[in-house]
Every structure is written in C-alpha cells, then in structure tokens.
Amino acid sequence: MNENNSSNVTTPPRPLERGTGGEAGRAxxxxxxxxxNDLAEGKNGGRFQTRFPPEPNGYLHIGHxxxxxxxxxxxKKYGGTCNLRFDDTNPQKEDTExxxxxxxxxxxxGFQWANVYYASDYFQQLWDFAVWLIKQGRAYVDEQTSxxxxxxxxxxxxPGTNSPFRDRPVEENLRLFEYMNSGKCExxxxxxxxxxxxxxxxxxxxDPLIYRVLNIPHLKTGNRWNAYPMxxxxxxxxxxxxxxxxxxxxxxFVEHRxxxxxxxxxxxxxxADCGSxxxxxxxxxxxxxxxxxxxxxxxxxxxxxxxxxxxFNKLNLNYTLMSKRNLLALVKNGFVSxxxxxxxxxxxxxxxxGYSPESIVNxxxxxGYTTYDALNDFALLESAVREDxxxxxxxxxxxxxxxxxxxxxxxxxxxxxxxxxxxxERPEDGTHTIEFSRELWIERxxxxxxxxxxxxxxxxxxxxxxxxxxxxxxxEEHPFDEDADGNVTTxxxxxxxxxxxxxxxxxxxxxxxxxxxxxxxxxxxxxxRMYERLWQVENPRDELARLQGEGLSAIEAMQQMMNPDSLHxxxxxxxxxxxxxxxxxxxxxxxxxxxxxxxxxxxxxxxxFNKTVGLKS
RNA sequence: UGGGCUAUGGUGUAAUGGUAACACUGCAGAUUCUGGUCCUGCCUUUCCUGGUUCGAGUCCGGGUAGCCCAACCA
Length: 617
Fold this sequence. Notes:
Layout: H1 30-41, E1 49-52, H2 62-77, E2 81-86, H3 96-109, E3 116-118, H4 123-135, E4 139-142, H5 146-153, H6 170-180, E5 191-194, E6 209-213, E7 227-229, H7 235-242, E8 246-250, H8 257-277, H9 281-291, H10 298-303, E9 308-312, H11 324-332, H12 347-353, H13 357-367, H14 378-392, E10 394-396, E11 398-399, E12 402-407, E13 416-421, E14 431-436, E15 439-443, E16 463-466, E17 471-474, E18 480-482, E19 488-496, E20 514-515, E21 518-519, E22 523-531, H15 540-549, H16 554-561, E23 567-576, E24 587-590, E25 594-598, E26 607-614
Parallel strand pairs: 1-2, 2-3, 8-9, 10-24, 12-19, 16-20, 22-26
Antiparallel strand pairs: 4-5, 5-6, 6-7, 11-23, 12-15, 13-14, 15-21, 16-17, 17-19, 18-19, 22-23, 24-25, 25-26
The structure holds one RNA strand of 74 nucleotides.
C-alpha cells in the first residue's frame, strides 16, 4: 500500500458540547431555566437527580433521543445524576431484547447512567403501600368488567357514577387483593381502584385502576407477582423512592401530574405512618434509608422535597411515524427489514443509515424544548447530519450509475498512481492513492449526447476535469457508441497530459465541472442502497388516525400511506479499493453524490453501502 | 357538549413589559479540482378582538384554531 494512505481512515468523533441548550448564543429552555433556578434557590439541598424511564417494549426512536438528551444531558451539565429506569409494569409487552437494545442505544448516543433501576424493584413497596391504602379506606377491589367500569366512568363531558363495590369492607378488600395476587384469580375479573371522585372533570381521577391481574411471568420478578401495578400508581412513587428531583416527560402526561402528585403525597403519609409505628428513632432512620432512595445520605433525605413532574413537547417529524406501536407493526408485517431498517426512525436505524450520534444530539439542541406541539421539518435533521458529516466523512469516489469512458490518447496498459485528499475539511486526515488508466467509469448522468443549456459536464466537444487527474475533452468526430435503443455504451475522449493535478498546467481554467471517476481495472463492485422517505404523507400520525376513522385497519392505512419507492438497491456500482477493509458504519462521502456509510451486511467480497443523505444541490 | 395544554416567517426556536431575532428551507451572487463546504445578499413573522400600560409578541378578558383526556398501555 502507499505511504500516503492515512492511518486514520475512520475519523474519530470530534469532542462535542453535550450540554442541552445553554451553549453560547443559545437560550436555555424553560426546563433548563427551572433547573438553574432550583439550584440557585438551593432546592433539595442543591441535589439534582433525573431519570430516563423507557418501557422495554420496543426499540428507542429519535423521539426518545430528545428525552435522553434532556434527562442525561442536563444532569451532566449541572452536576446531577441520571438513572436509567425501566418502567417494566406490563410483562405482556416486555422483553430482554429491548432492554439490551435500549442500553446500547443510550451509550451510542454518548450518555451514561449512574444506575440501572427497574420499576419492578419497587413491587413490594407498592404492594405494601396499596395494602395501607385499602386499610385507610382509599382503595377498593372492583369486580366489574372493564366495559362496566368504562361505562361508569362515563364520558369527558359528563360525570361518572360509583361502582357498587366502592364501599366494600376493608377486610374483604384485603382478602380479595391477596387473592388477586394468588395466581388463582382469573385476569380481568378483579382490579384494585383508588377511591377518589367519579365526577371529577379529570377522567384520571374517576377512581383509577391501580392494580390488575395478569398471571404472566415477569422478566425480572418471575412468578413472584400476579397482580401488577399500573403506570400511574408506579411512576411517581418510583421517582420518589429513588430520590428523583426533576421528572421530565412529554406533554400527554400533563393531566397525569395531579394524580402523580396525589400518589406521592399519599406515599409520604404512608411512610410517615410506618415510621410512627417503628419502635425507636434509629429504627425509623434505618427504615427510611432502606426504603427511600437507598443511595442517599440521611442529610440528603432530610432536604429532599420530592419529585416534580414537568412536561415538554415530544418530537414530531414530518413524513415520519414515531409511535412504537406502529413501528412494531411495520416490523411484524415485514414492511421493513427490522427495527434497524435504515428507513425507520429508530436510533439503531439512524446508526445503520450513517447518522452520527453527534448529529442527532445537535439536531435535538436546535429544535429545543417547549410546550408547543410542533411538527418539525425533516430538513432540520438532514441539515444537522450534513453539518457533522461534512467535517468527518472520508471522501471517496463511487460511480453508482456507470458508463464507460475511454481516453483514446492514453497508452493501453499504462497505470498512474494519483493522490486523493481524504477530507478537505481536515487536512490532517491525509491522502490516499487512486489509479488512473485508459478505461474509466463515470456517471451516466455526467454525459449528454447534446448538452442542455446549463449542462456543464461532459458532452461532445466539451472539456471537463477528472478529479485529481487530467482535463479531458470529449471527441467531436466520434464522441460515443450507442446501442439500438440509443443508450450510450462508451464515451470517447482525449486527455491533456500537461494538466495532471499538481502540475503547473493544471491551473488551466475550463468551463466544465470536475467529475469523479474510477479506473475500470482498479475498482471494486458494490451494492448501494438508496433510501427515500418511507411515508408519502407529511403527517403520517394524523393521516393514520384519519384513515382508521374511515374504517381501515392500521395495516391497510399504513399500506396506503407508504411510499412504494422508499428503497432502491443499486447492484452495479463501483467504488475505490480504498474502502475495501474499512469497518462497518464508517462515515463516507461519495464525492458529488452524498454521504454514505458501510452497511452492517457488507463484507470485503460484497461491499454494501447505505445512502445517509444526499449533498445539497 | 366537560377539563387541560398551546398559538411568533414555509419549518423550528429566541426576545423574561422597552428597536421582533437566530437556525433551517427557498431564491440570487461570489469562490471552488465536489453543482458540496466556506462567504455575501434577499424573501417571509407576533391567530382575531377588546382591555391594562408612557409602552404589549409578552399581562388580563372574550373569541378562533390546533393538540391531549372516556386502555385492566406507558
């Protein structure tokens, strides 16, 4: 190999500002402002703790990246801690596959958790708390069907009515709650409900279900539990038990906040009550430190004011469907090749597609955090990825729609080694060698039999420069061969030996542009996968709802919205030998075409590339 | 026929009662051995309506529009 070949073919990640907003010139979001204020006021003794709480029921998508950048990003920026907590309260949808993928994606994005917790870690405390609520007369076992319960909750516009089981005696409630968890209780027959207000304007307060029977083994707790707590009865309490100070979530949870606060308040009462029944002060202290935020010092516990939920707008992107449920349907129905199909909005898909983690995080910074339900233009994301890849991608020549070009005055059998810059944005990345010879591949699009008005590339009698090589001129007498259908099969040109890049004669100015090219005898065949948007409608979320409202199934609606041309596999492409042994996911720029990366399917004997995003044109 | 949240150029975001700005998109130009990058310029903005105030995008009232809530999902 040539000495010029640079050793750092894969460009190392640039050091990057990881703060969430607040960089020079950028105002802090309202969320960040609250953190700044809380810390300035010395709330929670100056302690600051967040959590990222995914349910392990699917892969993370770019919407999660927005939450991740906030939860982890602000914790890091302001000296707090962020824990990863799996909200694993529904064993019917959860899988360890997802747990591993979620951890991998968070790390890939460049963030670190302090601890990994599971909501299921607190099942015992939640159970004990529920028992206490029953004893307090604040919870009861209902044995109506879900339809009956729904009917009694009534509609958003009119008050509900009480369950006939609302005033069941405490002893009976305790017995039935125990039975719910026995494994003998038929799922769907009994639920535990909090006794609040069936006429409350907030539907969530109409005696919410807090425990249901599933009789399904749990990833973490196995067969220990058969009755499982619901989200609203778990989330705030988990935050509290962990010592979370700032609990951030998306806007659809705004009306959950009063319930969140209520259950946290009740839990404080329960803990205080347990404490008052303890026999001595030291036991109380022991009890508190075991139960509440075990990692916290007593002094930190004493200043802990409890978690505060704040909501921000989730990420919506045009031409993108984000909900995990629908992404799962795409995978299950084979509409895409998997969770990491490069057309998916998942983190793993963006990784495979060639997006850098920095570009995703930068995009998140740019769109910010507000309480407005925005629909972001995908161009904002593409601009972020181009900005980052322009700095780091290794430039190579690839011809994706080849046509043969013969340099008629170049000696047959002669081969020259020329120098190509790896990245003009980073001279320190060095150069590599390319071969020039009589027969070359160029892009079919770079030649026109009769040049259009603004066409500045190759055409009969016209001059262009071949990148890093010579100025050539297309023959006027016999410029090309064509087949019976008029397709050009070979183009003929002559080169000007004085104009080789680096020679004095190379400075000659010509009208034509600079073309990329490959020597036929010195390049490799390649498969290139070109992607377009998966959806043809700008707002798939709303359109899906609309079509389903018209009676279509989700599958039918998705088929109707899907872009039939979202994937083009180009089998007969050529690329420089330079890339042959580069690792999968290497960031590349195919000069004059776009940013590409090496697919995870690629092998040295069968190179496969994904189009990340095109160059601006 | 209830409750909650929201409204600033085509898109997103800022302006914390005091000159409406930044990025993206689009258009035009300059430079260019990538029709890329870099550089220059341009286009386009406070939902409506009352009020408070010396002064309102910002505060208040009334409209209008959009989103969320009637899962044994999270």
